[in-house]
Amino acid sequence: MCGTVRLGLAFGLGLMLVGVPAASGQVLDFETTPSGAVPVDDQPLPRATPYVVDGIEVRIGFDSTGDGFADTDALFEAVGDDGTDGYNVCFQENDTARSGLDAQLGSFFLRWVDPVQSLAALPPPLVIDYNLPVQAFSGEIWDLDSFTTFERWHIVAYNGKGGVVADLTSPVTEPGCSGNTFDGEPWIFSVSAVDIRKIIITFDGDASSVGLAFNNFRSNSFLPGPTLIARAPNSAEGLERGHQGVPKVDLVWSEPVRVDPGDVSVVDGSGQAVPFTLSGSGTQVTTITFDAGFLLLNDLYTITVADTAVAVSNNAPLDGDGNGVAGGAYVLPLRHVCLADLDTPIGVLDLRDITAFVDEFLNNCQ
Q1: What's the pLDDT tens digit per position in 150-209?
Q2: Does this model's pTM top 0.70?
Q3: Residues 308-331: b if buried by 16+ CB within 10 A, e if exposed
Q4: Which of 53, 65, 255, 259 satisfies CB 3.0 to 4.6 Å to 309 for a cystine?
């Protein structure tokens, strides 16, 4: 891989609480071999020797022939630049984590046989096999980036009959050492499915020279991601009123979240983008402020925060769909109508609104 990534609520917010199941199960952090010994740098992990998690055997290796079966052992790679590294990092030593993630990277991870300095070809697929079915998995691929092109990985899970039960792809990051990259950081994937017996991780980008740094594999559990716990404004069904429109939206997360402008989109009812500025990245409150002349007014708007927004603590992607599993965009529909728009159809002022006003005046005004 080339190198290139308690807030007290003082305002009145309605809370939308989401129950998130706790992550469980042993994490294969590759700090030990299957026998429990501490590995040494560049030591092979025998593909025929399983780790055993919750009584289930987990075998890991690379498929160099493309037949879907592991035929080459992965290597334990010691963290730190030693000349035979798993990935390159900008502005610091290879095989190191950006500040704050050192403990998460640990002392070892798994890599392909060829070090990144001498890659003659792209790494072949990584294959994970189980002897019994599992219902979930999650893991990390470190340092997704590229100098001029892009790095991307495709993860497919299969059941015991060879059918696909899960399929996901890593995000495409910006080329270079800055911007939206995972330079010295993990991309975390998390999956919940039925009857998982095999996982294959394949390179799916157009970069010509990348490694594969694999770490912190939960073989039979999933990792939860940050969830939305409150928003402002927060009226019923996302319906806002007022002649001045909506100048900004505050999103409150369950933990500090790193949100970049590229993670957010705002469109009006016709699909046109609405200009905005973003603040609060790295905190629990993300504020989307709409540019002057573009306040949300008399239309249906959709605010989307992609799951490329990640937890500050461990890079777990946003759980935008609220299913308890990291991953999934958060989509907020927000309709603004004028104060006089009192009855359906919303967005149209007609006789029904006058009738509704008269009815309220005769029955509820004091």
Answers
A1: 788 999 999 999 999 999 999 877 666 665 678 899 999 999 999 999 999 999 887 777
A2: yes
A3: bbbbbebbbbbbbeebbbbbbbbe
A4: 259
In this prediction, the residues of the chain whose per-residue pLDDT falls under 50 are 1-24, 237-239, 241, 243, 339-342, 353, 361, 365-366
Q: From CA 216, how far away is CA 208, in angstroms rounded?
A: 26
Gap between the Cα atoms of 278 and 334, Å rounded = 18
Fill in the amino acid letter for 65.
T
- The helix/strand/coil state of 364 is helix
Cα–Cα distance for residue pair 243/89, rounded to 1 Å: 51
Q: What is the 3-state secondary structure (H, E, C) of 299-328?
A: EEEEEEECCCCEECCCCCECCCCCCCCCCC
Q: For the sheet containing 239-241, what is the strand order?
A: 239-241, 330-337, 299-305, 264-267
Number of Cβ within a 10 Å radius of residue 150: 19
Rounded to the nearest angstrom, the gap between the alpha carbon of residue 56 and the centroid of all alpha carbons in its chain is: 27
Question: What CA–CA distance (Å, rounded) separates 104 from 144?
Answer: 16
Instruction: Tell me how far apart the 2 most distant CA atoms of the chain are, in Å.
Output: 83
Secondary element (H or E) of residue 361:
helix 351-364
* In the block, residue with structure tokens 């958060």: 330
Q: Are 278 and 257 in contact (CB under 8 A)?
A: no
Percent helix / strand / coil, the chain, rounded to 5: 5, 35, 55
